[in-house]
Structure formats: C-alpha cells, structure tokens
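wait is this the right file?? whatever heres the structure
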C-alpha cells in the first residue's frame, strides 16, 4: 500500500468520524454548553456597563441596550473633588508597586538558582514557610508601625515587593534558560548584575509579564491596606477604598451631587439614580484592568505554562 492510499484511507475514516451522528451530537452539545458559559461570564459585566450608561428610573430596566443613553453618570463621578487625587494615588502605587515587585522577585528568583549564593537552601526554605505561616494582623500592624510605614504612602509599595510564590515561579523559569548563555557572558567578564540585566531579564519577559499582571491587579484592587494603615490620611486614600465607601453610601453621595449641582434637581434625577451610581462606580474600578489584560494575556499564558511544566 502506497503512502497516498494510506493517507486517503485515514482521511475517509476521519470524515466518517466527523459525520457520525454521535460526533455531531457531541459537537452541538459542546458548542451550546460553552456558549452558555461564555454568556454567563460576560453578561454580568455587560449588564453593569449598560446600567452605568443608562439614565433615569427607566434605565434600571435596561437588559440588552442602555435606556436614556448618557455619559452623565461618569461625568458626575469624575467631577467629585476626591476622585482625582484617589486616581492619582492608585495609579502611582500601581506603577511603583508593580515595577518594584517584578524587579525584586526576578532578582531574588535568579539568585536562588545560583549554587554560590550563601545559605541559599536555608533562605529558600525559610521563604517557602512564609507562604503557610503568617504573623497575624495585629503583629503585622505593630511591625509596620515600628518601620514608620503607618500613615505613609510607602505602606502601599514596600511590603509587597516580594512574594514567595512569584519568586518560585521566577526560579523555575530561569532554570529553563540554557546555562551556556550565562557562562559565555562570565567568560567575557560580565558581572552578576550585568548577566541579569542583559541576558536573564530579556529572556524572562513571559514570566515578568505574568508577575506584572498579578502585581498590577493586586495593587489596583487593594483597599484593605489603606483602611488599616492610612485611615488618618485622607490625602492618601486610594480609588478602591473611596469607591467602596461610595458603594456603601450611594444614597448620601447622590444627595450630595444634587446639592452641588447647578442644574435643577428634577433634571438631574432624570439622568442619575442610585443604581446607576453604583454601576458607574463598579465600571470605574474595572475598566483599567480590562484595558491592560488583553495586551498581556499571551505572556501570562506562556509564563504559567512554563512554571507548571517545570514545577
């Protein structure tokens, strides 16, 4: 039997399998199921969006398209004097926190791959213990106070520069890089930092992007550290804590907007409701992450897969 005949027979068998009633039923059920799952995951976010773009009491009935379409909800929220400073604090902490976290985890993960690192095994095991054992909220607060981080912007950045899990991911990824690259650089007289910046870091962009997504998402959504350590500093209030307060006090906030607005109250009521305000608050907190994630998704998947296979 020739190769062409064998390929023809295999092709006929594949077509028979694809055209069989059981196969068609499976494909149909599979498509329906995953379409339903996609709808269940995507529609809640879409529902929040159309509610935030709807105005008046009739807007609360919107299910597929906005009713009384308006951007007034976003306009009124973004004109609140506290919002601007809160956005600035959240953006700065997210950028600084993400950059410092990625760099420190990458550097420490790289050092843990070196046999010449003093007390490497002891320090590595000690780091792993921190994944399972914590000091508790009160001891942690006392430690942060002794460090002078309470009522300080740096409480948002310094405690989060390292993560044991992320260091393990980096270590696993770096171990997959051919050692010959580093050895050739050492022969040319490159220092440890030079090797890290010129060879290891560029080749580790997938895992670095994975860490960046995790860190930026954590920094942007964090509000508990603000509530716990910086409650006495209104100028350091983050966007998430401010929006959390707005969600819990939507009626009071809406009344404040009525009092501060220059238009007639009846005109404003047509445009804005408590429900619309809550939905707008939710969208403001979600939009930045939605804008970042699609561009980093391919790096995230690659970084996770490499860590999973090597680990």
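ok assuming it is, sequence goes like this
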């Amino acid at each position: 039997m020739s190769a062409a005949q064998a390929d023809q027979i295999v092709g006929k068998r594949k077509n028979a399998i694809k055209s069989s009633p059981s196969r068609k039923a499976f494909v149909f059920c599979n498509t329906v199921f995953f379409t339903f799952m996609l709808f269940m995951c995507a529609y809640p976010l879409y529902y929040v969006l159309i509610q935030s773009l709807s105005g008046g009491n009739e807007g609360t009935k919107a299910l597929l398209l906005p009713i009384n379409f308006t951007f007034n909800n976003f306009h009124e929220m973004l004109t609140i004097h506290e919002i601007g400073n809160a956005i600035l604090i959240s953006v700065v902490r997210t950028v600084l926190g993400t950059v410092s976290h990625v760099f420190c985890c990458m550097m420490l993960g790289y050092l843990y791959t070196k046999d010449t690192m003093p007390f490497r095994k002891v320090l590595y095991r000690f780091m792993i213990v921190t994944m399972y054992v914590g000091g508790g909220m009160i001891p942690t607060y006392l430690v942060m106070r002794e460090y002078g981080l309470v009522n300080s912007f740096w409480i948002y950045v310094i405690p989060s520069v390292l993560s044991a899990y992320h260091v393990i991911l980096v270590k696993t990824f770096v171990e997959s890089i051919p050692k010959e690259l580093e050895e050739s650089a050492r022969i040319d007289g490159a220092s440890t930092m030079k090797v890290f910046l010129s060879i290891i870091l560029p080749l580790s962009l997938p895992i670095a992007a994975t860490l960046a997504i995790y860190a930026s998402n954590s920094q942007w959504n964090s509000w508990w550290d603000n509530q716990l350590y910086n409650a006495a500093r209104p100028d350091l209030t983050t966007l998430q804590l401010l929006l959390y307060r707005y969600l819990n006090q939507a009626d009071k906030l809406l009344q404040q907007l009525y009092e501060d607005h220059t238009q007639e109250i009846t005109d404003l009521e047509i445009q804005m409701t408590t429900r619309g305000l809550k939905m707008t608050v939710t969208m403001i907190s979600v939009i930045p992450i939605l804008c970042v994630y699609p561009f980093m998704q391919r790096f995230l998947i690659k970084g996770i897969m490499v860590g999973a296979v090597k680990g």
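The first helix runs from residue 3 to 19. so i think its the right one actually
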